[in-house]
Amino acid sequence: MAGVIMKNKKSQSTIEFIGVFSIFLILTSTFYLLFINYSNNIIKKRAYFQTENLLELISSKINTVVLEGDGYKTILDVPHKLLGSDYNITIEGNVLVLTLDKYGISLTKEFLPVNISGKLKKGTNNLENFKGGVVIE
Amino acid sequence: MNKESQLFSIDVGITFLVFVGFIVIFVNLWNQNVRQLDESLLKQNLQEKISFYSDYLVRTKGYPEDWNASNVLLIGFAGDEENILLISKIEKFMTLNYTFARSKMNLNGKEFYLKIIDVINNKTLYSYGNLSYQSATNLIQVTRFCLVNDSTKLIPSKLLLGVWQD
After folding, report:
1. Do B12 and A20 touch (CB under 8 A)?
2. At CA A101, angle to CA A60 and CA B103, rounded to 5?
3. pTM value?
4. Is the bond into B64 cis (omega within 30 degrees of 0)?
């Protein structure tokens, strides 16, 4: 009789343990998934804003060079990475195109219509207004 | 018969409640932080935008120099000298459609207002845009001191540019 009671107790405890452990596991997993999802959203938002800000900075520098007129020079520092990731920046006509593949972001920004010679590179760029056009070195 | 296992169930129940309690508190605190981080990212972004644009407004003539509603690419109020604003350009700006001006200022999807205030008499000379900014959350404002050239005298003024996103 005592043996049966003992056995019942043990199996009840095991079932309770499995039940509670499963609930803990489900809660923890749900919480973890939510956490990952939120974190990714924040990182993506940060990447988006940083991309936008960089485009804003570059276009404003080019615009300033155009508006200031012949002979105006300025320095433009383009970061090597955005949020630790590689990115591509190109100039197509009077549009800047920035692609940040890791986050699936591709943004464009127009600047004033002007002839651009030279290529924008990461690091320090010298911008100069030469007879109305912008020279990038 | 099941007193001991009943005791175990109560223990587990209490532990479970404490665990859930901690998770709820943690999720709440964390959500609050996420919201604050979101807001600060947005504010930083808006700040960058309006500091660039307010610079154009007070320091440049705009593009083209004699811009009007049909050809404007960049709005600027200055004349030959930086920080001296021409009334003719400000008045041209006042006639622009709000949505059009917003897109030209690269503020699509955001709301903005612009005010030019005579700092000596504390009188608003011009106001433009969405003026219900008092109720706006995430409002970012920039103040630029300048002179307004009304062809007879130079009025010491400040230009206020406020941007927000609902």
Report:
1. yes
2. 35
3. 0.78
4. yes
The alpha-carbon gap from B48 to the nearest alpha carbon of chain A, in Å, equals 7
- The full length of chain A comes to 137
Please give the pLDDT value at position B150. 84
Highest average pLDDT, of A33-37, A44-48, B16-20, comes from A44-48
What ipTM score was computed for the predicted complex, to two decimals? 0.72
> For residue B54, which residues of chain A lie inside 8 Å, CB to CB?
none
Give the alpha-carbon dihedral of A50, A52, A53, A55, to 10 degrees.
Answer: 120
CB-based contact A27 B12, cutoff 8 Å: no
CA distance B71 to B74: 9
Which residues in chain A touch residue B37, judged by CB atoms under 8 angstroms apart?
A: 42
Domain ranges of chain B: 3-164
* Token duo for residue B133: 């900014």
Residue bearing tokens 């109720």 = B135
Residue B91: pLDDT above 80? yes
